[in-house]
Design a protein that fits this description.
- With 387 residues, the chain is of the alpha/beta class.
- 39% of the residues lie in helices and 23% in strands.
- α1 runs parallel beside α2, α2 packs parallel to α4 and α7 packs parallel to α9.
- The two termini are 18 Å apart.
């Protein structure tokens, strides 16, 4: 059996800007505390050279979304972001109403640039609040305070952002259910169009993994999630993914493309990409050098550090790993369109998960049940390749 693609796959662009003011103790992203001057000019040059070398993989395709992540992309000047986006537009066609997201921190210095980012073409912000509680912010190593967090949302409104996300964590060291609910209510009162509400986890290669803080017990964390979901639903935020809630028509298009197993170009230090090639019946993943200096040195000649082609079993697993995060699940047709495989290659495993009450069928959609969402790792693990 081989992949057979009959429908065009949506294409997005992810741009990684790896520097931040300070590395947070829970962060496992490819990010680096800024110790010298930000190499804006050289890094934007490298990103555009990197993108130019990606073009042969995606001739004739247009961009559906762009996401600038990090690190803290809002450390870059509006002039640098404008030059970067102008270069992207010169190299690639894009839909007229393309969503362009910039991750930002709530620090006062960065807030002053919000309106200029808007003028440069950014039309969606994702602001890393994490908590409005001063003690929790201190434990998380955040450099903003609760007042700056609230002000950031107000400044986003004033800058003309009709669509922005506030990022919140729950299950924080020493956190109670009431504190988690207060964080959420504070965020809701600031009227963002999107809220990311996700559990703090202790990831390898982080300070918290080496020196673990005391987290709430599993039952308390589950209760925080359930009560948070209830509060968000009652105030008009629809859950569409395990940690994403949005006002109607304000889902993050870029992340939806990931979860629906779309394609994306990845440029920048440590960026990953996924490209489907119908001509060669292949799905490939690739990644760039993680260290910023190594990336800068290689960007104009050979920016791809490594790549691999997915096997059919890997494609099934990776589709499920993403699509089962979606509240509404997926259709058999979407599975076949994005993996290039007949539904029968995955149907038996889905049927056994339905029998175990981890999945359910709702009309033509296959969805995780409440039990399946709670034990999502166990559910997706059923689709792991045997080898």
């Amino acid at each position: 059996m081989s992949f057979n693609f009959t429908t065009p796959i949506p294409l997005s662009l992810y741009i990684h800007l790896p520097w931040c003011v300070k590395k947070c103790p829970y962060c496992d992203f490819n990010s680096y505390a800024l110790r010298d001057d930000l190499p804006e000019q050289a890094y934007v040059d490298a990103l555009l050279a990197d993108l130019e070398q990606e073009l042969p993989k995606i001739w004739g395709r247009r961009l559906e979304s762009i996401f600038l992540g990090g690190g803290t992309p809002s450390l870059f000047s509006p002039e640098a972001i404008d030059r970067l986006l102008s270069g992207v537009r010169r190299l690639l066609p894009a839909r007229r109403d393309i969503e362009i997201t910039l991750e930002a921190n709530p620090g006062t210095f960065e807030q002053t640039k919000f309106s200029e980012f808007r003028s440069a073409g950014i039309n969606r912000l994702s602001i890393g609040i994490q908590s409005f509680n001063p003690e929790h912010l201190k434990v998380l190593g955040r450099i903003h305070d609760d007042k700056e967090a609230k002000l950031a949302a107000e400044v986003a409104h004033r800058a003309g952002f009709e669509n922005f996300n506030l990022d919140l964590m729950f299950g924080l060291p020493g956190q109670r259910i009431e504190s988690s609910q207060l964080d959420l209510q504070t965020a809701i009162d600031l009227k963002p169009t999107h809220i990311s509400f996700y559990q703090l986890t202790l990831e390898p290669n982080t300070e918290f993994h080496v020196h673990p803080p005391q987290l709430p017990d599993d039952e308390s964390i589950w209760q925080m999630q359930l009560e948070g979901q209830g509060l968000l639903a009652s105030t008009g935020y629809q859950q569409y993914e395990i940690s994403a809630y949005a006002r109607p028509h304000h889902q993050c298009h870029h992340n939806l493309n990931y979860w629906e197993f779309g394609d994306y170009i990845g440029i920048g230090a440590g960026a990953h990409g996924k490209i489907t090639d119908p001509a060669s019946s292949s799905i490939s993943r690739y990644w760039k050098p993680r260290q910023p200096q190594q990336y800068l040195d290689q960007a104009s000649s050979n920016p791809t550090e490594n790549h691999r082609h997915l096997s059919e079993k890997e494609a099934i697993f990776e589709f499920m790993l993403n699509a089962l995060r979606l509240t509404n699940g997926f259709s058999a047709d979407l599975f076949s369109e994005r993996t290039g495989l007949p539904w029968e290659t995955a149907s038996k495993l889905c049927e056994s998960s339905i029998a175990d009450s981890l999945l359910q069928k709702n009309n033509r959609l296959i969805q995780p049940t409440t039990l399946g969402r709670r034990f999502l790792d166990n559910l997706t693990g059923r689709f792991l390749p045997d080898d």
